[in-house]
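Discrete fold record:
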Amino acid sequence: EINKIAQEPVSLETPIGEEEDSHLGDFIEDHDAPAPAEAASFRLLKEQLEEVLDTLTPREERVLRLRFGLEDGRARTLEEVGQVFG
């Protein structure tokens, strides 16, 4: 009988706790999500990078954004960057 109960599906929306204000799914770790400290560190780094990029000329900033994929995550080769600027 215990094996039968253990095999029955359980909804992630199953209320948990006395006030039932939490759900079972709230307690399952998301391995794809960054850890809070990692996310905060990334955000601070991004803010600092934006401050540095703001000190450059628009052309210099665009070159770096393209070269390192800062806008779309796709880093370009020097040749590709050169083609953008003719």
Remarks:
- The chain has a mean pLDDT of 89.
